[in-house]
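Risk register update: the risk of archive-format incompatibility is retired. Evidence:
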Amino acid sequence: MGGGDKSNSNSSSLNVLSQARMILWMTRGMTTLLLWICVVQLLTVGEIWGPRLLKTWPSCYSSQQINNNNNNINNNIHSASSNSFLENKVYLPPKRAYKNNGYLMVSCNGGLNQMRGAICDMVAVARYLNVTLIVPELDKSSFWADPSDFEDIFDVDHFIRSLRDEVRILKELPPRLKRRVERGNFRSLAPISWSDISYYHNQILPLVQRFKVVHLNRTDARLANNGLPLEIQKLRCRVNFSGLKFTPQIEELGEKVVKILRKKGPFLVLHLRYEMDMLAFSGCTQGCNTEEVEELTRMRYAYTWWKEKEINSDFKRKEGLCPMTPEETALILHALRIDRNIQIYIAAGEIYGGERRMASLASEFPNLVRKETLLDPLELGFFQNHSSQMAALDYLVSLESDIFVPTYDGNMARVVEGHRRYLGFKKTIRLDRKVLVDLIDRYSEGSLNWEDFSNAVKEVHADRMGRPARRVMISDRPKEEEYFYANPYECLDS
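Archived output:
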């Protein structure tokens, strides 16, 4: 009996121990299962508000299930009320992995659109050479003396993130290399104008590999229009049309101007390049009085880097090398049968000669407006004395216009024309100034009546409205051939 009691006692103890172990394992199993359920649920919504750490954990879902869940979440976000705390996830392209050959610093020169083209070129060069690009430095010493930095005009974070699958871009050099530059242990030079991409591989890359940091101090028109690999041309377009976004402040104000104009119907943007600096630089003085001619001449001589000093204004005008005057522009727009009641937005700085020179245009087209007349002075106050930021506003309005008419083929005229081509071949009237000057003079002399004059003007411009066309190439005269950014046909869906 004693032995039996002991045996039963041992058996009971084993049963209790076994049950305890089973309960423990079941508890562990249930706990693990609950934890994984929580992880899966968090991963499902983690793209929106989950902890960053969880985003790196493996998911039990298939990729298709994850995509479906993400789509459902995004749809819910778009339909949520305006006070929702959820924000859209910004999907970044993957970083491009490559062996970094060194660092490229860039100093742009000129106005906004001259610098814009240079930035696009230098991104392409950095990509081709496998180097890290430092955010370009903008020109602060040109005629306009604009103190704006890159981030004052362009969305610098978008610029860096949106191109990260092509090139590594940093806001500044790493500390070690900064000290190297401070000691002068780097190479600075101006690259050769209109160079083929092989020039950068053969001449610039060895300098980068030797000095680790190369500074290109003039970058306007330093890459050829033609004869480049297709991937280089497409990257230039990607930077221009996608990577270079203006700051939210500039974008919002530009949108406001467009909305104000749209409320009153269609509008034409007239890039009336008739400012003092343009006339002094070009030597074009048609319609100016004696005092104005003398003032423009003094200004031209005051700027030593404007190389041409003695200029025959009449000869340049007849060769089509002068911007159209406000009086000539009024005549041409009338001859083209532009509706006199259309809103005309003047995209320009202060017109030389003021109201006296604008009188003919205002009489023919009474609905002339400028950003200064459409916006409250307080809204523009931040942009005063920042010519590039003011030009950025004009750029945005120009892109959205029903018709864009530049009176001179400067950098803004060409870059806006190319951007409008990219956006679907929006109507851009490219004035043939050499032909127009001859027609205007003949009409003024009485050898052409109005009907013949108007018909001739329309006929000349029938194929100059921004329609699809291959770029004009002049292999031995790159400065005279059609500018890549005015007609980037490699990137267009025609």
